[in-house]
Design a protein that fits this description.
This protein is an all-alpha fold. The chain contains 19 helices and no strands. Helix 2 runs antiparallel to helix 3 and helix 3 runs antiparallel to helix 8 (174-188). The longest helix is centred in the C-terminal third of the chain and has 35 residues, at 389-423. The relative contact order is 0.13.
């Protein structure tokens, strides 16, 4: 339930303030990707170290996203938003000062803690600031445009800063934006809470963190320590036990962190899986592509950022088209188009070599952008399809968490396969082929799930879950 915003507030200023947080969080991923080769040279990081630079951030966000939303609803959205801005800015400052790879990874985790309190809470603040439905829709449209802008400008800005000043400067840009957002929040954003905030689930939260952290640690460190080492085997066993505990404990909670009944809806379950497969593929691609263009092809950081512009441009162009297709034709067509485009993009990457013609790379980048642009609107629609209005926000939060989980595993698996293949004497380009074939498999699963989620049987499962949740 929303809290009325006093008439003296300025909703457009509130929207601008919230979009500032989205801008820095959205840019953070692509900015850091472009700077990875420079960080590698300066701090002498291994492939595993580069993976942790990306995954320390995303892992914390994935683990705490739902908790941050429920805490904000209970104790106040503005308060949590301010804490998030402070933590993210402090983490950015620590990243820029990091003397070694371990310090940088720890600072990235601090950034992730702040980021987990920003975007979901900011969207709730916007929904409360715009009471009129059309105005709220316009505000959400602006929010989506800023997300696209953040993705588009991140690689170019990151490349330019890295090349002109150094990789530490990519974190400086967050500081003035974060401070300005903090001041505006204190001046113009009113406090709001839910009439009935969801209860805390500390056991479920601990189990979720245990599953994600232990599995990611095992995947990233497995090639270096050995897959049969006692620590890696123990982590895998611990992750399986934590997952079993989560599945046993959550259905017995009155207000669980994750309501497992949602997954009885096949459109919902398939959306979660498609999100994980699609975002994992994309995150792995971004991670490997930045290294390939700079370390293998000899591109500068700025040129690497410019090369990713086709991805951003086609993504921004295709997202509204996908939304219109969902409205007029349903979710099956855009999901199938996304899967087909991802299939083309990944098949092209399976032949990657040090001399792959640039038009081939550009074609792959264009198909990556189309695939990602087509993906989100049908997933968002299927996730809340048939859900009671009171549960739609929680369902959407699970979808956002699944995207972060996909990003974590995408970087972890891509880097691990790369390191293992290079250890067997393969060149960088050849070592990525196995990753690309894995992404081809993911695109096939997206096609299969996209088709199946629109069958009469799938719709009947969604209706069944809706009645169950209402009861």
């Amino acid at each position: 339930m929303k809290t009325q915003v006093p008439p003296t507030t300025r909703p457009n200023l509130i929207l601008a303030t919230c979009c500032m947080s989205l801008l820095v969080v959205g840019m953070d991923v692509t900015i850091v990707n472009v700077a990875l080769p420079s960080i590698n040279r300066d701090l002498h990081a291994s492939v595993a170290g580069l993976q942790w630079i990306m995954d320390a951030y995303t892992l914390v966000v994935a683990s705490l996203l739902m908790l941050s939303g429920s805490v904000a609803d209970r104790i106040g959205r503005r308060r949590v938003f301010q804490v998030g801005l402070t933590m993210f800015s402090l983490g950015s400052a620590l990243c820029s000062l990091a003397p070694d790879i371990g310090s940088l990874i720890a600072a990235r985790a601090a950034q992730g803690l702040g980021a987990s309190m920003l975007n979901p809470v900011a969207l709730s603040i916007i929904a409360n600031a715009f009471e009129e439905e059309k105005a709220r829709a316009r505000a959400v449209g602006v929010w989506g445009a800023v997300a696209g802008l953040a993705f588009a400008t991140g690689p170019i800005l990151g490349g330019a800063l890295t090349q002109a000043i150094g990789w530490r400067s990519i974190f400086w840009i967050n500081l003035p934006i974060g401070v300005a957002a903090l001041i505006l929040t204190a001046l113009y954003v009113p406090e709001s809470k839910a009439a009935h905030g969801r209860g805390f689930d500390p056991v479920g939260q601990l189990l979720l963190i245990s599953v994600l952290a232990s599995m990611i640690f095992a995947v990233i460190e497995g090639p270096q320590e050995g897959w049969q080492s006692a620590r890696i085997v123990g982590l895998v066993i611990f992750a399986i036990a934590a997952l079993a505990g989560l599945l046993f404990y959550e259905p017995r909670r009155r207000e669980p962190l994750v309501d497992l009944r949602f997954f009885e809806s096949f459109p919902f379950s398939s959306s979660i899986l498609i999100s994980i497969f699609g975002i994992a593929s994309f995150s792995g691609f971004l991670f490997l592509n930045a290294l390939y263009l700079q370390q293998v092809r000899g591109f500068s950081a700025l040129h690497t950022g410019l090369c990713t512009l086709p991805v951003a441009a086609t993504m921004i162009a295709c997202a509204p088209l996908s939304g219109r297709l969902v409205g007029s034709r349903g979710t099956r067509l855009p999901l199938l188009l996304s899967g087909l485009d991802l299939l083309v993009a990944t098949v092209l990457m399976t032949r990657l070599s040090p001399s792959t013609p640039f038009p081939v790379l550009l074609t792959s980048y264009l198909f990556w952008g189309i695939a990602l642009g087509m993906l989100h609107p049908p997933l968002a629609n299927n996730t809340v399809a048939g859900m009671p209005l009171a549960r739609a926000g929680v369902a959407a939060a699970i979808l956002s968490t699944s995207a972060q989980v996909g990003a974590v595993f995408g970087v972890a698996v891509a880097g691990t396969i790369l390191a293992a293949n290079q250890a067997h004497g393969l060149s960088f380009a050849s070592a990525t082929h196995a990753v690309s074939w894995l992404m081809v498999g993911c695109s096939g699963l997206i096609l299969l799930l996209g088709w199946g989620s629109n069958t009469p049987w799938a719709r009947s499962t969604a209706n069944g879950v809706a009645h169950l949740l209402e009861d």
